[in-house]
Amino acid sequence: MSTVALPSPGSLVNDPRWLAAGAGGFASAALAMWAFRGLPLGPALLWLSPMPLFLAGFGFGLPSLLGAVVVAALGLALLGGTIPVAVYAAAFAIPAMLVVATGLRQGRFTASVPMALLGAYPALCILVAEGLLADSGGLEVVLTALVKVGIDRMGMEASEALVADIVPVMAAAVGFWLSVAMLVNGIGAQRFLARRGLALVPNPGLATTRLPFAYPVLPAIALAAALLDGFGGTTLSLLIILLLPMLLRGLGVIHTRSRGRKGGGLMLGAIYVALAIFSLPTAIFLVGLALFDHFAARPARGTT
User: Fold this and answer.
1) pLDDT level of residue 153 (50, 70, 90 thresholds)
2) 42: how many CB neighbours lie within 10 A of its CB?
3) What separation in angstroms does the CA of 163 have from each of 160, 213, 235, 250?
4) Where exactly are the transmembrane stretches of this chain (predicted)?
5) Is residue 245 classed exposed, middle or buried when 0-12, 13-18 and 19+ CB atoms within 10 A define those classes?
């Protein structure tokens, strides 16, 4: 009578890291491919496609995440070709790998560099797109054409004034959603695993996380470029997206200062309401608060 040989404990099929890599890769590719095929709820599922990658990374480490990315890329290449793979890699796979690689440190998650990546990575994508589209007139020309098509499809008149208002912030809007995908999926995956005792590290204290000390140099350079360019082209988008981590840091300061204080919840709610209604002045206030905390409060507390 023949017998079936069972896999040894050290084999790939018994290693939870590689099982997580395979499951995460297949799930992520399925979510992304659902969207690329234009199926119902596609956009929502597309933005959730990094979640299985983060689950593999925060639950089993960077090697498991890299395996999941390889599995997902192979699946997308077989079913969709090179364009879906390129979009998936740039929008979801590379950010997930960078967040896990720079955050996991000796049994804890250090969120300083990952928080900076919320601005730096989308800004880098904008610059790369600008270079790749140079022969087509640059990113601004391509975005102008896309905005006109979108306005026409909504049955509106694509006036020059309306297009001119949208194009300078269009790249920032795309970059913002990339950052949201990184932030929401990363936090969601970590908290899901932590509640079940499966996370490699405890939940990080995001409210107290400070940006790398040199980070404000990047938005300062973007501001100088925007001033020289008259806030045209994509320079305004670069400035906006690079200021996003500082805005988040400002919110973190408010969370920290309001914690445990009488009326703290009311103050926190008021800030979020103001951010929704009076977006620009409130955002400027939060960035200013982040700068003060970054340069003044940090030396006073002896932190780096």
Assistant:
1) confident
2) 15
3) 5, 37, 16, 32
4) 18-39, 51-79, 85-104, 116-134, 166-188, 209-228, 234-254, 266-292
5) buried
Residue 64: enclosing H or E segment and its boundaries? helix 62-80
Question: What local confidence, expressed as pLDDT, does residue 115 receive?
Answer: 95
End-to-end CA distance of the chain: 68
SS3 content of the chain, % helix, strand, coil (to 5): 75, 0, 20
What is the rounded distance in angstroms from the CA atom of residue 218 to the CA atom of residue 38?
37
Please give the biggest Cα pair distance in the chain.
82
Which contiguous run of DSSP H or E holds residue 109?
strand 108-109
The top-scoring range by mean pLDDT among 112-116, 171-175, 266-270, 296-300 is 112-116
Please report, rounded to a whole number, the percentage of residues in the chain having pLDDT higher than 70. 92
Q: Report the alpha-carbon distance of residue 284 to residue 83 in Å, rounded.
A: 38
Token pair belonging to 228: 């020289």
Give the type of residue at 76.
Answer: L
Instruction: Give the DSSP per-residue string, 124-190.
Output: HHHHHHHHHTGGGT-HHHHHHHHHHHHHHHTT----HHHHHHHHHHHHHHHHHHHHHHHHHHHHHHH
Mean pLDDT across 80-93: 92
